[in-house]
Design brief:
The chain is an alpha/beta fold. It has 2 domains: 189 residues, 2-enoyl-CoA Hydratase, Chain A, domain 1; 41 residues. Helix content is 44%, strand content 15%. It is built from 9 helices and 9 strands. The strands form 2 sheets. Strands 1-2-3-4-6-9 form a 6-stranded mixed sheet, sandwiched between helices. Strands 5-7-8 form a 3-stranded mixed sheet. Strand 2, helix 1 and strand 3 form a beta-alpha-beta unit. Helix 1 packs parallel to helix 2, helix 4 packs across helix 5 and helix 8 runs antiparallel to helix 9. The longest helix is centred in the C-terminal third of the chain and has 23 residues. The chain is globular and about 60 Å long. 35% of the residues are buried.
């Protein structure tokens, strides 16, 4: 298995890959190296039969405090900052297998963005979310957030930079569940195993239209989610073996 400096990776027998942001001394700030390592890890898992789903979590008591701002003090690295950030966000969003953010503490700025790029978010009782970067001149990313919590709340969170804690995050649907201290990873793995009860090709197809269909109208989305699903998944499986009754 590849060795990384800023992340720790583990593949369980259950076909769950666990990617841990591993800079606890920096509150898991997302550096150029971390972004490249996340991209490298996900690219390696994309076609691996050993990994059917990925959980992202932070080491220590923080999910991620956001981008490593110290790197913005070095103009000679600006091209790297832009390129690594642009690629990493797309790699997480377009990863073809389900992703779950196990938000074990504050997810701020770029850490908030990382959580919203995942398909599901499970929070610990200590999870929190905010976009404080707007206060020092960095426009937040709103689009994935608006698809999760709705336009009004997304604008509120992006413009005010206010912090929301676990109860509000659960109430607005930002996290699906809030789990007691020490139980977060266990519960997230259980959810992952439930997801992996479905056939891999079905999960890939479903994940593909999660990423591609927002913003499409009903007819265009329906042709993918129904007509293409019938042709490429349901009828193909029916030819190979009868579908199980519910």
């Amino acid at each position: 298995m590849t060795s990384y400096e800023t992340i720790h990776v583990e593949v369980k027998d259950s076909r769950i890959g666990i990617l841990t942001l591993n800079r606890p001394d920096k509150r898991n700030a997302i550096s150029i190296r971390m972004r490249r390592e996340i991209s490298s890890c996900l690219n390696g898992w994309e076609d691996s039969d050993a990994v059917g789903l990925v959980i992202l979590i932070g080491q220590g008591d923080t999910f991620s405090a956001g981008f490593d701002l110290s790197e913005f003090a070095h103009p000679e690295r600006f091209d790297e900052l832009l390129a690594s950030s642009s690629q990493y966000h797309r790699d997480v969003w377009n990863f073809p297998k389900p992703t779950i953010a196990a938000v074990n503490g504050p997810a701020l700025g770029g850490g908030f963005d990382l959580a919203t790029l995942c398909d599901i978010r499970i929070g610990s009782e200590s999870c929190a979310f905010a976009h404080p970067e707007i206060k020092f001149g960095a426009p937040p990313i709103i689009t994935p957030l608006r698809w999760i919590v709705g336009e009004g709340l997304a604008r509120d969170l992006c413009l005010t930079g206010r912090r929301i804690l676990a109860p509000e995050a659960h109430r607005i649907g930002l996290v699906s569940q809030v789990v007691g201290k020490g139980l977060l990873l266990k519960r997230t793995v259980e959810i992952g195993m439930t997801i992996l009860e479905s056939p891999p090709e079905t999960l890939r197809f479903t994940k593909a239209y999660f990423a591609d269909n927002p913003g499409k109208g009903f007819e265009e989305s329906f042709c993918i989610e129904h007509d293409e699903a019938f042709r490429k998944i349901l009828l193909k499986r029916a030819r190979e073996a009868p579908l199980k009754k519910a």
